[in-house]
Amino acid sequence: MHTLERAIAAVDAAANNPNEGLPEPVFLMVSRLTPMVNVDLLIQNPTDGTTLLTWRNDRFHGEGWHIPGGIVRFKETFAERIHQVARQELGAKVRFDPQPLMIQEPIVRDRADRSHFVSLLFACSLTHQPDESMRFFNGQPQAGQWAWHKGCPGNVLPIHRLMYRHVLESKTIGNCSRPFQERLGYESLCQGFAPNPTRTPSWTCQGASPLDPDSLPGAE
Question: What is the pLDDT of residues 96-146, one digit of tens each?
Fold first, then answer.
């Protein structure tokens, strides 16, 4: 067996069950070879316009509030990942509009690991309230806590500020994706991102057209 074939066999063995996720070394290797597809869950209170965010402490993107989301696993549907994110990050259940509000393509130009994503934002609404034991009240937020936010908080993850500030500051999105899509116009949304303001921006992010809703899994 050639060296490359042996290496591939070793990776296959390490991956074990990719439907359940990958060991971090394998995941990072895959992220250096191909874009990652992720879903983000926009959950807003239609009464007061607040948005449900969770606190993340991430060695790649830093720490801060962010729109809950996750990377789609092998042979997993968008619907399955959306429901898993709601359960794992919020202890909640949701229904969602199967047509994404927007599709963006963030790329980190000066990093190899986890540097290219295709991000789909879905409008969701709660059918079961989040786990109160995971709620943030005061002090320093901890990884995995959630809270309702009015507008775009100052300590939101920089990449989500770049991608979604206009969404977080909107008071009229609610569960109505079509009017928001028409206002958005799918123009390019992100033109540069630098976690360190002294660095040259390394992110680019392009908007895209919505997917055909008939090609997506239905809301559950």
Answer: 999 999 999 999 888 899 999 999 999 999 999 999 999 999 999 999 999
Spatial separation of the C-alpha atoms in residues 135 and 96, rounded to whole Å: 22
Helix axes 3-15, 24-31, angle to 10 degrees: 120
pLDDT, mean over the chain: 81
CA max distance for the chain: 63
Question: Which residues neighbour 80 within 8 Å (Cβ) at sequence distance 6 or greater?
Answer: 217
Alpha-helix residue ranges (DSSP H) falling in the chain:
3-15, 24-31, 78-85, 158-168, 177-184
User: Minimal CA–CA distance to 78: which of 55, 92, 94?
Assistant: 94
